[in-house]
Amino acid sequence: MSDALSTDPVVGLALGSGSARGWAHIGIIQGLEAMGLRPQVVVGTSIGALVGAVYVSGQLDAFAEWVQTLTSREVFRFLDFSFTGGVVKGETLFSFFESQHRNPDISSLAQRYASVATEMSSGREIWINKGPILPAARASCALPGLFSPVQFDGQWMLDGGLVNPVPVSTCRAMGADLVIAVNLNAQLVGRHFSRAAEPAEPSPDERARDRGWWDRVRDYMSSGGSDEEGGSPRFFDVIASSVNIMQDRITRSRMAGDPPDLTLVPELRDFALMDFHRAKEAIAEGRRLVEQHQDLLRRWRPAPPAEKPAEDAAAEARTRKGDPPQGDT
């Protein structure tokens, strides 16, 4: 379905789930905007819901600057560890986020937006496209076993990646003729919780403190030695591997039944689930992907407005000045 007053196709952007790999969404959106292609429909699952919310509310550039300053110490400082419904409650992170960002109502936005969540009691796929945008995004971000469920509109919500990791179908239902899908769930099997816990360019003392803190957390939650050492897998690695396998299989199934017009797959093979401190790499990869597909994407840009005949332009100019129209007397 296209806009009634335009022959241009309605372009939708389906931003997939994938935890820290989701920073690639930022680079993809920035690349699309730089070439003059602004999707009219933006739908996100999990980290895609969060980045999409920031984008459609006009705050993406400032957000991109902030995430690129994050170190591993700052990331884990935001993780309020808990054992109620998940390892991480997420309240500290999202409270900080809401204090730093506007929270407009979705209905007031120029672009159509929805987040995808999973209703815990029924397993239903829920599309949230009304109300304040940040709670809508937060409801989509609750990875089982890692982030605690979120209460939204009287119901407990789990991560949208459980039912629709790359929400192509939602984009089409919201009126998109062409859908660009960002699939973060390829190349995942075998990826673990965190590749490293070191800030960018730390001092020796800072590096030692970071490793010591993170190792204590990992050891506390571990069921034995690491798999590299021949022992049983660690707790966090079990969670990460399980989530990766699940999302990979669901993504393959959903996208086979409802394929997008273009699929962008960031090459982030060594990105682990919680590598949020590596935003600069992921953003650069997102921009690279857009450049790689620029020939196709440029064809989807809105057509420039047709130039009006010179006499029509002159008549409009006289009207603006208050002069009477010229013609036969």
Summarize the structure.
The protein has 329 residues and is α/β, with parallel strands linked by helices.
- Computed over alpha carbons, the radius of gyration is 23 Å
Number of strands: 10
Distance between the termini: 47 Å
- Helices and strands, in order, run as EHEHHHEHEEHEEEHEHHEHHH
Helix proportion of residues, in percent? 25-40%
Strand content: 5-15%
Largest sheet: 8 strands, mixed
Q: Structural class of the helices, strands and pairings?
A: alpha/beta
From the spread of the alpha carbons, the general shape counts as: globular
Mean pLDDT: 79
Number of helices: 12
Which consecutive residue ranges, at least 5 long each, have pLDDT under 50? 1-5, 189-202, 220-227, 317-321, 323-329
What does this structure look like?
The structure is a single chain. The longest helix is centred in the C-terminal third of the chain and has 23 residues, at 235-257. Helix content is 40%, strand content 13%. Strands 1, 2, 4, 5, 7, 8, 9 and 10 form an 8-stranded mixed β-sheet that branches. It has a two-stranded parallel ribbon with strand order 3-6. The protein is α/β, with parallel strands linked by helices and 329 residues long. It has helices at residues 24-34, 47-56, 60-67, 72-77, 91-100, 133-139, 168-173, 204-221, 235-257, 279-292, 294-298, 310-321; strands spanning 11-15, 41-45, 86-88, 112-119, 125-128, 145-147, 150-152, 155-159, 178-182, 262-264. Mean pLDDT is 79; it is low at 1-5, 189-202, 220-227, 317-321 and 323-329. The N and C termini lie far apart (47 Å). The relative contact order is 0.18. The protein is globular. It contains 12 helices and 10 strands. Helix 1 crosses helix 10 and helix 2 (47-56) runs antiparallel to helix 6.
